[in-house]
Amino acid sequence: MLGPMQTIDPQDELRVYDAYVAGRLSAGLAAGVRTGLFDVLDSDGPLSCAALAEASGLHERGVRAWLAAMQAGQLVQEVGSGDFALTPAAARDCVRNKPGSLAGLIDMEIENFLSPALVIEGLRGGGPCVYGDGDPWAEHAADPAKARAFSDAMHAIACSPALALAEKAPLENARRLLDAGGGSGTISVALARAFPQLHCTVLEIPAVLPHIEERAHEEGLEQQISALQGDLFAQAWPTGFDAVLLSQIMHDWSDDEGARLLRRAYNALNPGGTVLIHEKLIEPDGGPLANALVNLDMLVWTEGRQWSATDLEQLMQQAGFEGVQAQKTYGYWSLVSATRPG
């Protein structure tokens, strides 16, 4: 039944419909990464639809549909007559084994891509459900393959933000930095390059320690970056640091656990030391959309949420920090810093 005629702003109706179909772009993006379509276009393109299908071992009809969607999504462009190539953005972020590519992040989530069913499970249970009833961090600690995939994915998403953070971080006088939960050390690598006097200690679970050592060796920074086995909550943190970094850590935990992390950071610092929180923040208007949507990821992966600068400032002050400052660094990322008095 059509129902009574109503005066509707077409843009309002399109807003809902566009939100509904947006998942198709994510699905096509992930499928292109997993099947190697982006890789083939990068190495062999421009290619016709038929040539791309043959080179990828895929069905031509399927590839034609994929090309149409990716072209509209500005990830693929038509060049010449009927040949296709990657756009600069896709060539940078959708191709495997390129520095800073997001392909590893996208590929890791395919088995647990944020689906309506997963969100509904999170809505009903209120807690992490991406691994069923298993705790994600315990799963990573027990399964080196999962730990490696997650570590590589976090490296992918952090590469460009890490370089920007190194330009903004107030570390000119710092000698020792604790990178708490620092993954494979992506941020520490950028900071060590920018500040030759700085030694970074990356605190991580045992399954991740080899990744830190590998990355430090690859970058020639073994003298500036060291791996330290530890747990964010189960064991005491080492002390005597001039700076503590929490990059993409606060959003993984509940408010109470976030407060515990900040108290631990405070105790790890020398008087006058600096805590650095590197996150994708929520603005006063509730946006940007990309950051707000990550709340759904946090629902199914963690106990946390995306923070605003105001909320972080309050929590940092409660932990004893002073002089809280927030600044944008890169894209959706921001740095919130504060000082331990003394």
What does this structure look like?
- This protein has 342 residues and is an alpha/beta fold.
- It has two domains: 10-97, Orthogonal Bundle (Arc Repressor Mutant, subunit A), CATH 1.10.10.10; 159-339, Rossmann fold (3-Layer(aba) Sandwich), CATH 3.40.50.
- It is 48% helix and 18% strand.
- The chain has 14 helices and ten strands.
- The strands form two sheets. The chain has a seven-stranded mixed beta sheet, sandwiched between helices. It has a three-stranded antiparallel beta sheet with strand order 1-3-2.
- Helix 3 (49-56) packs across helix 4 (60-72), helix 8 packs across helix 9 and helix 9 runs parallel beside helix 10 (186-194).
- It is globular, with a radius of gyration of 22 Å.
Structural class: alpha/beta
The order of strands across the largest sheet is 6-5-4-7-8-10-9
The helix count comes to 14
Average pLDDT score: 93
Over all CA atoms, what is the radius of gyration?
22 Å
Overall number of strands: 10
Features:
18% strand, globular, alpha/beta, 342 residues, 3-stranded antiparallel β-sheet, 14 helices, 2 domains
Give the structure's gist in a few sentences.
The chain has helices spanning 10-35, 37-44, 49-56, 60-72, 88-93, 103-108, 116-125, 136-142, 144-168, 186-194, 209-218, 255-268, 289-301, 309-318, and strands at residues 47-48, 76-79, 83-86, 176-180, 199-204, 225-229, 241-247, 269-280, 322-330, 333-339. The protein is built from 14 helices and ten strands. 48% of the residues lie in helices and 18% in strands.
Write the layout of secondary structure elements.
Elements: H1 10-35, H2 37-44, E1 47-48, H3 49-56, H4 60-72, E2 76-79, E3 83-86, H5 88-93, H6 103-108, H7 116-125, H8 136-142, H9 144-168, E4 176-180, H10 186-194, E5 199-204, H11 209-218, E6 225-229, E7 241-247, H12 255-268, E8 269-280, H13 289-301, H14 309-318, E9 322-330, E10 333-339
Helix pairs in contact: 3-4, 8-9, 9-10
